[in-house]
Amino acid sequence: MAGRSIAHFLFGSLAIALGSYVYLTMQIDMSANNDYKNAASIYEFTVKDTHGNDISLDKYKGKVLLVVNIASKCGLTKNNYQKLTDLKEKYGESGLVILNFPCNQFGSQMPEADGEAMVCHLRDSKADIGEVFAKVDVNGDSAAPLYKYLKAKQTGTLGSGIKWNFTKFLVNKEGIPVNRYAPTTDPMDIAKDIEKLL
């Protein structure tokens, strides 16, 4: 009888400990997603590269950044890939870094998987567009914290939500978003704003 009581006690204690762990883990994850509200700059965010490695954005301190949600099957893809490549070639050595985040939220127009499939797609498209990160959501509860931060700092014309592929955020050398551009904005039309920040 005593053995059964001890077993029940141990099982109950284990269940409580496991439940507490799950609850605390969920709270930590939830608070991590809300950190964007208190972030002073994008340097406080860590993202995954296309191969799943953690990348702290503070590695880009002192650089001018252009953050873009990209897609491979969009009507805007060809022009944006070409013009982002042109921007990188023109301003890369002066301190511009383009951060590309594949996104499949708009018409499922980014079907390529992260990793080698993404690298091959960009190579085949002759898109030397800069740094490429893991696929993210940019809208909704599942949006990447970085994108929640960007949208809070630079709202769009009709609200903060990202409307389509190739929305662009320009970030100064202090990691502060200073401008937002519509998907239809030609990347080369951003050149004058980039030059002011370099």
UniProtKB/TrEMBL annotation:
Coiled coil: none
Membrane-crossing residue ranges in chain numbering: 6-24
GO molecular function annotations of the record: peroxidase activity
GO biological process, one term: response to oxidative stress
Keywords: Membrane, Oxidoreductase, Peroxidase, Transmembrane, Transmembrane helix
Cross-referenced InterPro entries: Glutathione_peroxidase, Thioredoxin-like_sf
Cited SUPFAM superfamilies: Thioredoxin-like
Matches recorded under Gene3D superfamilies: Glutaredoxin (3.40.30.10)
Family: Belongs to the glutathione peroxidase family.
Protein name: Glutathione peroxidase
